[in-house]
Amino acid sequence: MASIYEGTFDTASLQKELTQALDEDRKYKATDEMKKRAIHTAAGDEAHDPVTSKELQNLSKSERQRNRLYHKKKASLMPATRPATLTGADDGAAPPKSSVEFQRTWQRSCATDAAKLQYLERTTPARLAKLFLAEIDADLFGSIVACLCRSLRAVNPDGEIDAFEAEQVLVHRSMAILAAIGTTRRRSLLLSFLTDAQRDDLSQLLDHLHSVAGDANEALLDLRRLYATP
């Protein structure tokens, strides 16, 4: 059984155990109800057959004892299931090992743009390129683009010199992320699946990068060629 201290959770195993426990509970309740009715019916005949009534009562006590043990087991399972909810705060603490893991953590644990940026930084552009070499889901890509777009607008909205360095860092990070994802083999298919809103976000992101990086930035020109939407 998965432990809360092990860092990983076998939700399929836990679900199976809980299902089995619930089945046992239903069987117990049905059996216990039948035995109670049998005891009630036999109560009038107790004088004729006291042994049978006593055996049923003793058996019922044994079943109740088993039920108490079942409820203890059921209660011990419940805390272990809570960390496996869709708000696992530690899910993004380590770089993802697969594209599926990245998407799952992105959707369930990265609730804010700050958390999303941190997860992208932890994953690194090089790892992103490997994870999504074959393909990337259009909605996931759109979510990444939207996050970068919002973050760039928020980092230095008034063009302050004090925030210029942070803006430059985010610009270069965004360009590296786009370049990494742009190596996916099904880029044309990805772009064709984008919604109008997602295409608009991508266009705004490239324009914002252009406004900061300048016209002569070769890396940005490459990005515009990569993400030329059909």
Automatic annotation (TrEMBL):
Alphabetically ordered keywords of this record: Cell projection, Cilium, Cilium biogenesis/degradation, Cytoplasm, Flagellum
Domain Dynein attachment factor N-terminal: 10-67
Superkingdom of source: Eukaryota
RNA-polymerase II-associated protein 3-like C-terminal domain residues: 95-199
Annotated Pfam families: Dynein_attach_N, RPAP3_C
GO-annotated biological processes: determination of left/right symmetry; epithelial cilium movement involved in extracellular fluid movement; inner dynein arm assembly
Positions of the UniProt region annotated as Disordered: 39-75
Keyword hit for Oxidoreductase: no
Start-end of Basic and acidic residues biased regions: 43-52
Main location (coarse class): other
Cellular component terms (Gene Ontology): extracellular region; motile cilium; outer dynein arm
Compartment(s) of residence: Cell projection, Cilium, Flagellum; Cytoplasm
Protein's job: Dynein-attachment factor required for cilia motility.
Description of how the protein assembles with itself and partners: Homodimer.
Family: Belongs to the DNAAF19/PR46b family.
Stated name of the protein: RNA-polymerase II-associated protein 3-like C-terminal domain-containing protein
